[in-house]
Structure formats: C-alpha cells, structure tokens
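Q: I'm writing up a methods section and want to include an example of the input and output format. Could you take the sequence below and give the corresponding predicted structure tokens, formatted cleanly so I can copy it straight into the document?
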Amino acid sequence: MNFTKILKSLFGDKSTRDMKLIQPFVEKVKAVSPNIEKLDNDALRARTQEIRKHIQESVTEQRAQIDQLKAKIEDTPIDERADIFAQIDKIEKEILDIFEEKLNEVMPEVFAIVKETAKRFATNEETVVTATEFDRNLAADPRKDFITIDGDKAIYHNHWTAGGNDLKWEMVHYDVQLFGGVVLHQGKIAEMATGEGKTLVATLPVFLNALTGNGVHVVTVNDYLAKRDSEWMGPLYMFHGLSVDCIDKHQPNSHERRMAYQADITFGTNNEFGFDYLRDNMANSPDDLVQRAHNYAIVDEVDSVLIDDARTPLIISGPVPKGDDQMFEEYQPLVEKLVDVQRKLATQFLAEAKQKITEGKAKNDAKLIEEGFLSLYRSHKSLPKNKPLIKYLSEEGIKAGMLKTEEIYMENNNRRMPECVEPLYFVVDEKLNSCDLTDKGTEWLAKQVNDKELFVLPDIASQLSALENENLSDQERLDKKDALLNHYAVQSERVHTLQQLLKAYTMFNKDDEYVVIDGEVKIVDEQTGRIMEGRRWSDGLHQAVEAKEHVKVEAATQTFATITLQNYFRMYHKLAGMTGTASTEAGEFWDIYKLDVVEIPTNRPIARKDMDDRVYKTAREKYNAVIDEIQKMRESGRPTLVGTTSVEISELLSKMLNMRKIPHQVLNAKLHQKEADIVALAGQSTNGLGAVTIATNMAGRGTDIKLSPEVKEAGGLAIIGTERHESRRVDRQLRGRSGRQGDPGSSVFYVSLEDKLMRLFASERIASVMDRFGFKEGEMIESPMISKSIERAQKKVEENNFGIRKRLLEYDDVMNKQRTVVYEKRRHALMGERIGMDISNTIWDRVVNIIENNDYEGCKEEFIRIFGIEVPFTDDQFYNEKHDDLAEGAFQQVMAAFKRKTDRIQTVAMPIIQQVYENQGDRFERIMVPLTDGRKMYNIPCNLKEAYDTECKSIVKQFEKMILLHIIDESWKENLRELDELKHSVQNASYEQKDPLLIFKLESVKLFDNMVNNMNNRIVSILMRSGIPEMQQAPQEAPQEMPRHQTPQYTETKRDLNEEQLQDPNQAAAAAHDTRGQQPRTPLVKDKLPGRNDPCPCGSGKKFKNCHGRGIV
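A: Here is the clean output for your methods example:
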C-alpha cells in the first residue's frame, strides 16, 4: 500500500468528506417526505405556491425601499444622484442574500415536493387537479400534449412528446440524485456517471431557485438537447405553475425570445445565451433587450461548455471597408507550388535517411548513421505529418536516434539549428504550431515573382531613424514617413498572408481539423468532434484554408462585439454544472470559475470491465486488430461502439468494415444531425449479431445507450477506442457510454506509436520497451505500466492546454475590464435612468482634464472647442488659486451653460410639438426632431404624445441617449479593431525576449485611455453645442420601427453628407444575424390544431377561433 492509499484510509478522500457534509441535507428531505406524501394533488400544488409566496415576500421591504429611492431620482440634483444609485445597488445585493437564506430553509421541503410530483407522474396515467388560468393557457397550446381540460379539472398525462419522440414518464429521484441536487444548489459541479440521470437531478435545484422569480438558465451543449429537455422536464415544473421556455426555438431579437427569458425556467445553448448578451449590448432601445439579470445557471456537460467551447470566443462581426481586398487567392498557387517543392525535398531526405542508416548499421559506420539521422530530422522539420515518415519513425530505434540528433542541434539555445534547416524552404514545428520561411524559401519565392524585396520585411526602425537625419522640410519628411509606413504595412500583410497559407497547407488537414460542406470550411472541434457552427479561425487562418480548398474566400470582418464563454458565465450570481467527467479538470474549474467539483456515487456499482491499452507499432496493425475485435464482439451478440478522433479515421474504419461486409452506422462531424437517433440504437442486437456504431469520442452526450435483455446476457456494450485522446476526460466520456446503472460492459483502447499523442509525448519509452523485448509486426503490448505511461503523456498535454486556455483568458480579461466599463455606461444611456449622472460625470472629467493638462492659453482654446464657452476664470486665478477650486467653479459654470442649452431646446420645440399634437395628433405617433451642433444634423425620432406630456423633456433625453449610444458604439468598435491589431503585433515581442501578454496589457491601457478621452470629448462637444436650427421645416413623421424579427437589408441610399447616421447598418445587420445551428425543423403537425369552430381546449366554452386560436387559424 503506497503513501497516498494510507492517507486515504486514515482521513478519507475528498469525495467521502463531501458526502458527509451533504448527508444531513438529504436526511432532512427524507424526514419531510412523509408529510408531503399525505397531501392530495391540489394541496401539493397549493403548498408550492405558499412557499413561492413566502420566498418572494421575504424581500418586500427591500423592494419598497428601492421604489422609494427611484422615485426621488428625478427631484435630486444630478451631482447628488450617485449616492442614491449606490444605495439601490447595495439593497439589490441584500435581496440576493436574503433569497439564498430562504432557499436553504425551504430546500428539503421543495426537494420532497419535486420527488413526490415525479413519483405521481410515474405511477399514475393521469394526475387530476383543479384547473387554474395557467393550466387553461397550457392546454390551449397544441404543442403541450401533456395536459387536457375537463370542465373545472386539469388532467396531466404521464406521456408526452419531447424532442420529436413520444415519451412516458418513468423516473423518480434516487437518494444519490438528491445528493446531486444539493451540490448543484450550492453552486458547485456534480460529477455523475453516465446513465445516473443528470437531467432529472437538475430538476431539484432548478425548481427550487425558480421560486424566487429571478429566472433560472439551463445550459446545454446543443439545441437538440435544449429543446428536448425543456419539453421532457417541462411538465414537472408547469404542474406547479412555473413557466418554461427554450430560447433556441425562437428567432434572435424577437418578442418570443424576450418572453422566453421572462419565463421562470429558460433552456438554451451556451452560444445563444452568450450571443444574446452581446446583442443586448448593441441594442438601441430598451424594448430590444431580451435578457434580464444573470441570476442562476446550471450548465449541462459543464466540461464541454466551460472548457472545450470556452477556447473560442463568441464574436459578432460585420464587413469592413475593402474587406474583399485580400491576398490569399493571389498567393495560394505560389504557396501550393512551394509546398510541393518541399514535399519532394522531404521525400528525398527520407529516402536518403533510410539508405544511410541501413548502410551505416551494416558497416558499423557511425558517421554515416549520423548523416542519416540528420537527413531524417530535416525530413521531419519539412513535413512532420508526412505518413511515410511517421511509419518509418515507428521502427526500432529510429525515433530515439532522431531525437538525439535534435538534441545536438538544439544545444546552446538552438545555436546550430540554422545549419540544420539551411536546405529547407520552410520549417514546421508541430508542438509550437508554427511554420516559418527560411532564407532559401524567401529566395525561391523572389525568383518566382522576379522581385527580391517582395517577401522581405523592411527594417522600419532604421529607415525612420535615417529619415530624421535627412535635410527635408516638415511636409516632405511627413510625406516620406507616410510612404515608408504604408510600404511596411503592405509588406507585413503579404508576409502574414504567406505564413497563414503555409500553416493551412502543412498543419491543417481536411476531414481532421475541418470539413468542407456546401462550399464552406467548417471547423471540427478537436475535443468533441462536432462542427462548430458560425465559428471561424482568426488572424486570416480561416481565409487561408478557404483559399487552399478553392472555396469562396470570405471577406475580412470587423469585430462589433465579443466575449469568451469563460467571462460570460462568470457574470452569473450563482453558477453550477454537471457532467460525467470533471475531476481531471478540477483545478481549472476552481482557478477560473471558483467551482468546486463533487463526485456523486453511483446508484448501483459499476460492472463495466476497463481493460489495459493495447499498443501496436503501426497504425495499420492497430486498425486490423480493431476490425478483428469488432467482428469478434458482433458474433458474440455484443453491440460495439467504436470511438474515433477524426472524420478521416471514422471513414477509413467504415471502408474496412464494408470490405468485410459488416453492417454499421457512422456518426462524425458530417452527420451530426443524426446523432441522437444513431446513438440511441447503438445498444441493440439483431438475430444474435450486435450492432456496430462508429462515432467520435464525445458522441451522444446527453443520450443514453439502452441495452436489450439479450445484449445484457451476452456481456453488454463493448467500447473500442481507436486512439487515446489528448484529454483523459474525453476517453472517460467514451468509456462511460457503457455500464450505465450497473449494466455489464467493457472498454479497451487501441494505440499505435504513429498516433499523434504518442508521436509527440509518449512513444520513445514505449518504443524502446517494444524494441528490447523484440516485438514483431502485428504483436501488441498490453500492460498497466504502459497505460499509466500514456496517462502521464495525457497529463502533460492537459497542462499545456490549460496554459493556452488560461493565457487566452488573460488576454480576454484585459478586454473584459474595458468591456465592463463600456457596457455599463452604454446600459445607463440605453435605460435613461442614470444618463444625467453619467453626463455630469463626463463634463466633470473634461473640466478636470483640461485644467490639469494645459496652461491658461490651452484652457481658453479647449473650453471654446469642447464646451463652446469662454474660460470661466482669469489668467491670475489659474496661476494663483488651487486647481481643485477652479475645477469646481468651472464645472458649475459649464453645467449652467448645459442647462441653458437643454432649456432652449425645450422652449423652441414646445410650440411646434403643441401645434402638431393638437392639430394632427391623430395622424402622427412619432415625430422627427432636427438638432444640430453646427457641423452635423441629427434627426431624433420621438414619441409625439410623450414629448407633449413632458413639455419636451423627453426630446432632450432621447437626444442625449442617442448621441451617447452612437458615440460609445463607434468608439468601442474602433477600440476592438485596435485591440485585434495589437494582439497580433505584440506576438513579435517574444523575439525581443519580452512577454507579449505584458506588452499587450500596457499598450491596451493606453488605447483605452485614448478611447475614453476621445469619446468624452465628442459627447460633451456635441451636447454642449446642439440646438434646434432656426429655419424650421414642416413637421416630419418619423419612420415606423422595423419589426425586430426581420433581418435588416443592405440598401443603397444617397444621403446628405452633413447628416450624421446614428446607427451603423452593418452593425444592425450583424446583431440581427441568426446564430442558431441550422438544422431541419420538425414541422408542427396541422391535425393537432383544433378546427376554427371547435371548442377551445382551454375549457372556456368559446370557439377556438375566438379564444386561443385568434390569429392562428
């Protein structure tokens, strides 16, 4: 017994300690259950409403205080409002704390109610209750087939349609599921094995937290699961009067999606929750907002969402001017030719290496062997993914010899490496994911285009330095400097295009890293094997792959809004998650999200047999052994699930099975729409022959593989992994498909020394063991020691991947701090409540900035330029009085001038508004009010009645709001563009032995300060100078707002150059873009709808066309 096991036996492990802490809560649930079981159906529902009312009334006093404070805002001077808003924020936090306290009090009883409801659904065909208005509205919806109305009774049936299938409710919560429910309510991650009913576990904390009325979000990995789970679990919640909806069923920015967020429980995919947050921060009216405050979220398959998907940020982008002006298609033929030349060179080096190594060993010539391994290393640096090279490296002693050669040339900080790579055209480093041209490659390219300088970056620093020493006029020097910088920018873009094309050709393989479907390059997630809809590689890499595949190269885009899922989910007041595989990433969950992982024991002991890995020398031997094993399992009556890591391997195995005439199903990135159907049938057998299913390692998450009695008798589902994944939890996920709820089964992984993981991290030691024992072709090695060695290699990769994700987060954290400030300012402008305070703060900031950073003459110029007033203090005061006192006095003067401006707008506008409202109020609902700052004209749409009722105060507020939104959006968009450019450019800092992240942080602060400075100047300048022009035109009706469910179309219009456009049409189009996964929709079957003249299903006695069918039939 080792030391770890001794400690575990003495003190127990973390899982045991966690269970001891949770056990008392579960005992309380059991204690209260008998009382709940005695209640009839109506009393059970009534008790839920009593608890709900008790929870919500516990904060009545605090909400009354907030209402009183809000009522005082308009009558409070602007510079005193900050204290009121601080009090409101403090009370809102108190409310959340009170809710948590109350939820903990009622948790045992609420869990017992949910469990009892599930039990009554499972044991009764019909559950009859007294009908409420909520029940009648449910029954009137033909899609909700679980409820019917009979007079004053509502009948809840125990079978209904979910995810397109008719399901019967047969589930009741086990004790271990109560454990899971407590963990999720506490804001932790519950790790539960496959088949333990995670979806049912979530009903407990979801139901409990929904009672506050603040909303609960249930997040799934794909839209099929979001829709299925909302329909499957929905009746359990709706029976107790809780509303349920799914955002993925509705168009973005639509009224229906807004109502989905208003529901007590909202299901949806991680992407759509994130995209809706970004869209809300691009909205131009409070009516366009769909989300409410981020209260509580439970993330299903939390490792897939918060780790795998979190690596790629969510981006809403749109076209940029001259976005089609790219060089990828221009240089693609040249790069393709260069790669072919290098491929021939790599083949030549490999042939040379084989010959010299063989001869050297035969003659015992060390020099010849050394030359051979140098040629081999050069072939490896040329094209490391070359299959003949990979095969040769798996032979006895070959890889070990090449690694010794690498050590020689990497000594003393790669001092001899240039000598090694001199004959190559470019160098590929698979571990660093880089591809760089050599001098020989640059010369070859220069000859092809007859221009030596075309692909060489000029030494811009020395050129600019030389320019300063030339005897030129200021204008000539400026012109020359611009010319040099423009030339450098073009050369830089050309070299960058070339590098990305090289990377696309040498490191990204079709049907492995990506697939091409309908003329589009779509990324395949390396962890899940799923297509990542709507995602694109950044930095021009995606365009390079498109050029390589000869599909349409999409135009360059500009980021309008972006966030990583890591930062999105950290905004929730309380976050929880559930999965079958989280413990291997427990450190990352704690470091990034402060989420603790709690392992929940299984309901029944796991009977699955997990065998040691079977290691072969070559991939060919491995795949032949896999096919033999599949045939053996199939003939023994056991179904087989074969896990693959790429489309290419799944299609290769499919061809091999076809050659042996073995029927099978294939599930890969090209066929993911069939995922649920294929996986559900993977556990069956026909005529004593087991089903064979080839799938990606993460296939079927959220879908159980159920076994027939014959299959259980034969030994259960056999899992065969064709390659070890870089991440242990992905392998555990594949193993977990077998052995659910105590079912029999087995799992085994087949590995070869040619596999990517083995090549990069683990093969030397295992290869030497196989060489030492004299393993022949086709023989395998199977040992616990080898399996542990592979797991150690996986840990190395996991640590590396965690480092990459953490670094991505550190970059995004810089942007996130800026985003928080900008979005908060934008939300204040949009809602209008705090806009006066924000403008006051902005004016104060400008006054202080001008006084602190200028002399008296500078102050005079800046006060006129920004505020449009004379400087309110004398030269003598400026130099003799304290600047703080000057700033306070100047601020009061500027605020007085601002008030005069706004009063003037109201005075001028009121007679016209009064005339239009009193004479033509029946014709116009909205009116356009022209305002100008002397340089541009702004047309402000206002509600005519509101403007009349408020004596034109609403016009001023609407103008302030639109100016702030417009300038904030423009400034933030430009800042994002500059941050993208900065992120790309700082990577060169590593050549100067500097940390790119540190440089990024320092430079991004300067960019943000400049953005805020310019933004505040523009806002104040426009607001201080604007007024209604003296020459009035006839009142003009404002155009009707575009219905939000329609996507704005691009139109060519000629507009007055002096008229400012307050909304970017490209941004509006990007925000309205539908980001949902495009999958065939299940049509609503018409015969489920009642006829026009049939009685309405709600039981009201009216005809359907006059009741809930109005507008539908």
